Amino acid sequence: MEIQHLAEDAGQAPPFSDNHERLRQHAILCILGCRCSMEIVIDDPRLRPILEKVEAAQRLSYDDGVTLFETSDILSVGYMANLVRERLHGSITYFNVNRHINPTDVCVASCRLCAFGKRAKDPKAYTMSLEEVWHRAGEGWSEAVTEFHIVGGLHPELTLDWYCEMLRGLKYRFPQVHLKAFTMVEVAYLAQRGKISVREVLERLRDAGMDSLPGGGAEIFCDRVRRIICDHKITGEQWIETARTAHSLGLHSNCTMLYGHIENAEDRADHLVKLRALQDETGGFVTFIPLAFHPDNTPLQHIPKTTGFTDIKNIAVARLMLDNIPHIKAYWIMMTPRIAQIALRFGADDIDGTVVEEKIYHDAGATTSQGLRRGELLQLIRKAGREPVERDTLYRPVTRTETAFTVLV
Ligand code: V47
């Protein structure tokens, strides 16, 4: 009788005044095998209706997003995000064997958020020759990479032909490697400089070997914030339009959000809702990566660094709001391997890859290592109690020996 009564009440999550009584009821429900809202003690009552929606697999609203960003009840948010993560991926955690290549740091944009971009006249600026790019791609560890992640500054002189030649040369030398290249910002800049359409730029890059696009440059879509952190970059609307065009050509891409600077909870919720709306339309996003702002060596270096709490929260809220984007990445370079491990219990199902040589975050003060070996990534994931799966860029499982790999299609 009592048990039946408790089970009926389970969906309503009554407020418990007596902790002992709550634990007793919880124990009975566990014996019954119920997974319900009574398993979790919610400190912030504003999260109750959100939990109900999450359990019923209903879409969360913009207001829910603001509430999730504002609350400090991180365990409840994490519980919900983990529920969704495990519904989608079980315990599987993806990683890849990749290499970053940044052909140039010369950039006309001078974004305040960035420590990587340099003016052409800066003695510290560099631009690789094509031969250097191709040579650099083959350097590093013997493990066969499955992806080159290629991004750089907005160089005022490098032409679309130069970039196409770079891609063709990479495909010729490394035919099996997926080329994930150029942010929406670089694509839009090439179109503007060449006085041609974004579509034409994307078609030419694709025909030269570009397989997909990374998620960078989205920052925060809100104009008020963009005017301060990246005033010379394309607008949020132009970023979305460029991604829409890429997806319409059958190209997949990732997407990002830069947090931890001058944005607020509303700006973040708005950013996620806009990404979700585009994904409803195109289905072209593969992975979302929340990026923590690193202030060192930028004009915004007075802004304090993000905390582990904020980093974890952004992963969890992203998993809850982006119900149509399959993967959420805890980019270990940006959040440290330690926090990335925790993130695997708070909504993330991916930790990125070996990377080998990272410049954008290290120029901005990152203290993580430049790269990790495949075995170290496996260990990180296993020690977090998750099941590692090596993937290619499009999440097909990879089997490998030390120097060769096979993608299971
Ligand atoms: O576009 C620049 C951001 C992005 C800083 O698609 C900064 O798989 C923090 O997009 N502090 C590049 N962030 C990184 C990126 C990325 C990384 C890993 C995987 C993928 C993917 C994409 O980093 C830039 C910009 O949004 N950024 N400067 C800074 N000081």
Description:
The protein is an alpha/beta fold and 409 residues long. It folds into 2 domains: 1-41, no CATH class; 92-407, Aldolase class I (TIM Barrel). The chain is built from 16 helices and 12 strands. The chain has helices spanning 2-9, 19-32, 48-55, 62-70, 74-89, 130-138, 160-173, 184-194, 198-208, 223-229, 236-248, 265-282, 308-321, 332-343, 360-363, 374-383, and strands at 92-96, 98-101, 147-150, 178-181, 212-213, 252-259, 285-292, 327-328, 350-353, 387-390, 398-400, 405-407. The protein has a 4-stranded parallel beta sheet with strand order 5-6-7-8. Strands 9-1-10 form a 3-stranded parallel beta sheet, with helices on one face. A 3-stranded parallel beta sheet has the order 2-3-4, covered by helices on one side. α12 links the parallel β6 (252-259) and β7 (285-292). The longest helix has 18 residues, at 265-282. Ligand V47 binds at residues 113-116, 183, 214-217, 219, 254, 256, 258, 289, 291, 293-294, 298, 331, 352, 360, 364.
List the helices and strands and how they pair.
Blueprint: H1 2-9, H2 19-32, H3 48-55, H4 62-70, H5 74-89, E1 92-96, E2 98-101, H6 130-138, E3 147-150, H7 160-173, E4 178-181, H8 184-194, H9 198-208, E5 212-213, H10 223-229, H11 236-248, E6 252-259, H12 265-282, E7 285-292, H13 308-321, E8 327-328, H14 332-343, E9 350-353, H15 360-363, H16 374-383, E10 387-390, E11 398-400, E12 405-407
Parallel strand pairs: 1-9, 1-10, 2-3, 3-4, 5-6, 6-7, 7-8
Antiparallel strand pairs: 11-12
Helix pairs in contact: 4-12, 4-13, 5-13, 6-7, 7-9, 8-9, 8-11, 11-12, 13-14
The chain binds ligand V47.
